[in-house]
Specification:
The complex is a heterotrimer of chains A (231), B (283) and C (239). Helices cover 79% and strands 0% of the residues of chain A. Chain A is mainly α and 231 residues long. Chain A has one domain. Chain C is an alpha/beta fold. In chain C, strand 9 and strand 10 form a beta hairpin. Chain C is globular. Classes of the chains: A mainly alpha (231), B mainly alpha (283), C alpha/beta (239). Chains A and C meet through helix 6 of A and helix 2 of C.
Chain lengths: 231, 283, 239
Amino acid sequence: MSRRQYLALVRRDLLGETRRLQSLLSMVIFAVVAMVVLHYGWHAGAGSAWAADGSGAVPAAMLWVVFVFAALLGLGRTFAHEREDDCLDALLLLPVDRFVLFLAKATTNLLLLVVLQAIVVPVFALFFLDVTAWRLLAFVPVALLADVGMAAVGTLLATLVLHARSRDLVLPVALLPLLVPLLIAATSATEAVVDQGAGLGSIAGRLGFLAAYDAVMLLVAWGTYDILVSE
Amino acid sequence: MTADETRNPCISAVPMSPRERLYSAPALFLWAALVLVAGVLLAFLVAPIDASSMGFSQKIFYFHAPIAETALVAFGVSFVSAIVSLRRGAEHASGVGEQLEVAAVRLGLVFSGLVLVTGMIWGRAAWGVWWAWEPRLTTFLLAVLVYAAYFVVRAAVDDEGRRAVVGSVYAIVAFVTVPITFFATRYLPEGLHPVVITSSGARMEGSMVLAFVVCTAGMLLLLAALLRTEVTIARAQAHVSRVKEEIERRQAAGPAPDRAGVATPGGAAERGEPMEGTGRSTR
Amino acid sequence: MSAATPGGAPTPSGQGPGGIVVQGLTRRFDRREVLRGVDLSVAPGGLLLVLGANGAGKTTLLRILATLLRPGAGRVTVAGTDVRQEPEAVRRSVGFVGHAPLLYGDLTLGENLRFFAAAYGIGSPAKRIADVVDGVELSLRYDDPVRELSRGMRQRAALARALLHRPSVLLLDEPYAALDERARVLLDGILDEESGGTTIVLVTHEPERPLRWATETVRLEDGVAVPVDGRGDSSGGRR
């Protein structure tokens, strides 16, 4: 008898999944994007110390892979307090421009990301890298610019899925692909600066790109936030 | 619903003028087919076989590049449609604009998938590898992922109005990400040797250019035909839903004098009187 | 622009600071038309009671007045300002008490109110907060996390939050629900104090209590506002 019940349960679940296709499709998308991110973490620069050496050392750019996945978890919490206490209306009632709400939330996320990095990066260096602290410092401008972009897009997307179901699944799936260009630039710059010890001047183009990415995303948020967050 | 709204929008009350017939959906398909066939003929019979190492398989370029451009045009349509919808305000977000946006994204996704397939075939023919992390392939891979997520995001929102707004905002962010990604893969990191699928540059001869242009035009016409069809189908479906609701509403109101839905401002309505004509518009 | 005499007879139009005018308001959710052409006006200082069955659209109407929801068609003016043109200005003048207390559970009552005071740009916030907390008799709970307050206390705290910035318009959605008798008397006191000066819209299922301050009453039926006479019966043509 329990075998029939078991089958009935499985069948019902599968039926539900096919109705809404979401879970499988989401996981597939995420897996493929993760592979893209992995590629850029692993092959961030030609002629890098890692490539030549191949002794099993990990490229510095891989820290972005670690970091972005951790960040995805944190960004999902953007409106957690308002949702848990059912007080989103409290913010919407305030006599402030809705974009200011965005900036406030994005700033909090930015601080969160910076603190996370300050903890994760040294640990990563400890486990995997063999570089002096100086080189790690050179990584800071790259990190900051990238963090601004991640906070901006992350906050915007968190608002997008504010009223959605399966939020915890949808946010990472929707956000990660959008971060790929940012990660391409960040991993490349990190590789140059940390593994190869290049100077900041040589990554000026990449830093400029990151700044441009940040600007574009902030612009999109500015243009769309009011209509997005209102009902 | 007013008498106007019960009429099926997909069947024109006034016969189409000859001009309109020229760009109706069936006509567009016809045009597309004609042009594409011409393009194929030009590509295979008129254009010379490429002098490079690729030889005959270079001809896939006549499809790969036009499909790529058409995909980008489709995404561009979704981008513009999204902006227009949002500018008109949330009340107008769902409607024809939304249907166009969704259709454009879906078609862009399909075309992008084809870009990947033709690109991989090209890559296999030219360099013996199925995949290379080069700008065009990577960008279109990302486009596929980003726009597939578009549907995931939309499916997660239950409220119709919100879904339209959310979809439009995502469509905008997604679209700006595509050229940004292309730029990123092509120009940085400096030092990576990308295997670039070139369009053979200025070395294209006249007949090659012609074949290329004709194929591009054909693809764009195909896109137009598909878009038009999708939007028409979506409108028809929406119309059916509206009619169903109206039927339910009238059944619920009962056979007696139809007092449901009468609202005269000021509260001076004489209630309970039989209604003349159809009920209030649900718009 | 007719001026209202505080506590006097309501003027026919709601123009002027603090008044509310709604003309032809429609609003739909997912194809269901909740409001189908609501017309009403509240004179500055007046108190409007809104009655109606569940799902009639009372909360929707209130949320539109608070700019939490966008109106569909129609014109909505609150405190002399169009909600579409200048929603921020409207929010500055509006105090809203809904079903949720709109307070952060992890923060204390004091922290919550300090946040709102800063967000509303209130001068000398400490004094104002103390006054308002006193007014709802929650001074003893000032440093307790809101999460630990009972439902009735949270409702009182919500009132404090709504009154903090001295709004010229108060929107109350079933404010008596979840209040014990003592708190109800408190609310009565607040209504007594505010009415005549502040414009109030009160949605309720128990009209008897606030009736004494009501300057007009409407019932939402089929998406329109029907005027109601003093005894709570619907009548037509009384405008």
